[in-house]
Design goal:
The structure holds two protein chains of two kinds.
Chain A: H1 25-37, H2 40-57, H3 62-72, H4 75-86, H5 91-101, H6 105-116, H7 123-132, H8 135-144, H9 153-178, H10 184-205, H11 209-228, H12 234-258
Chain B: H1 10-33, H2 42-64, H3 75-91, H4 96-114
Helix pairs in contact in B: 3-4
Classes of the chains: A mainly alpha, B mainly alpha.
Chain lengths: 259, 115
């Protein structure tokens, strides 16, 4: 998992000039694609293998399984969707559950989009970019995109996302065909990909105490919200409580540093 | 019951109206919420912390109340490999790849051990 190319940022006063670090947009697009190929694509693809199998168990075709990856672009929501259909849950309940699980995209999109866009980015581009944001793309993007010059960021982001979509489309179809024939320990290994990757990537992303505290508090509070928060809302409660806690800790640390 | 989903446009209708739209709603809303926030906004640090805590919570949930093949492992078989993966991460110059390899090796071993 290589770092981004070390391109120095030109001074911010150069407002009118395009800030591309001496490269074209298509070079940045392929740089994003290359960085995704170097690792993140594999992780996100492996984590979606099991979704294909779930779709088959729920009685859907391989086309629907692949379309769910492209349209939902959210492993956990896909697991919920096919799991709920297989359990013959009513349609309004399925829609409601999916919607609740996708509330987590709000802080992800709101924190990543201001880093990627420029003042001139148009609404359709923003909507497409927001659609591409899922866990892996967010976690990797938060670390990699600030290293890209401002006007190259959207191209880099789309290159990175494109490869992730490509890999997962293939792996969803492969999972649809293969899963069920895997020995159980290997199937458990596939499902474990998401937890181990998240924790390692979030640790690597941590630049200041607030990030580490958010990670630690999130993990520590999980058993509590799991037990006490209303079902479906537990993650939301956890995010707000853990995130606000980390933010307060950072404020206290900043005050001390200033005093 | 399941054969129904194989026929015609019905599965597409289901996927779009009960899966895609309820989920995409939040991404669309977020585009407008993000409008007032620029990269240097103090809100961004808070939003970022909420997103990080939330993702850590997703991990906690996956390990505490797992489904599928993960559920066949005892709690130590799920939490232990996470710890082993993170030890490898710090031991091998903060490498995500090392964490994945060590964690995966540990959980597959735990699977054969417990099964």
């Amino acid at each position: 998992m290589s770092g981004a190319a070390p391109i120095p940022d030109p001074p911010a006063s150069a407002e009118d000039a395009e800030d591309l670090g001496g490269r074209s947009r298509s070079v940045w697009f392929w740089d994003g694609a290359r960085q995704a190929l170097a690792g993140p694509m594999l992780v996100v693809s492996v984590s979606l293998l099991s979704v294909g199998g779930l779709a088959r168990d729920a009685g859907f075709s391989v086309e629907i399984a692949v379309a769910s990856t492209i349209l939902l672009w959210a492993g956990p929501a896909q697991v919920l969707f096919f799991g709920a259909v297989a359990a013959k849950t009513s349609w309004p309940v399925i829609a409601f559950t999916i919607s609740l699980s996708s509330v987590r995209f709000v802080p992800m999109v709101v924190s990543l989009l201001p880093i990627i866009r420029t003042k001139h980015t148009r609404l359709p581009t923003l909507l497409l970019a927001a659609h591409c944001i899922a866990v892996t793309v967010w976690a990797e993007g938060m670390r990699r995109i600030p290293l890209v010059p401002r006007d190259g960021r959207m191209a880099f982001f789309f290159g990175f996302s494109f490869i992730c979509f490509l890999g997962t489309t293939i792996s969803t179809a492969v999972g649809f065909i293969l899963i069920g024939e895997l020995p159980r320990p290997l199937a458990a290994g596939l499902l474990f990909m998401t937890p181990i990757y998240f924790v390692a990537a979030l640790t690597r992303n941590a630049k200041s105490p607030i990030d580490s505290w958010a990670l630690v508090l999130g993990l520590a509070i999980a058993p509590l919200t799991e037990a006490f928060a209303p079902r479906g809302l537990d993650l939301l409660v956890l995010g707000v409580v853990g995130g606000t806690g980390a933010w307060l800790i950072q404020r206290v640390l900043d005050e001390r540093a200033r005093a | 019951m399941t054969e129904v989903y194989d026929q015609g446009l019905w599965p597409w209708f289901v996927l779009i109206f009960f899966g895609f739209l309820p989920s995409e709603l939040w991404r669309i809303l977020s585009v407008f919420l993000a409008r007032g926030i620029d990269e240097s906004s103090p809100w961004l640090a808070w939003v970022r912390a909420v997103a990080t805590a939330l993702l850590a919570g997703v991990v906690g949930k996956l390990l505490l109340s797992p489904n599928g093949a993960l559920a066949t492992l005892p709690l130590w078989g799920r939490v232990g490999p996470l710890a082993i993966g993170m030890i490898a991460y710090f031991a091998i110059r903060r490498s995500i790849f090392a964490a994945i390899v060590a964690g995966e090796a540990a959980i597959i071993a735990a699977g054969y051990w417990a099964g």
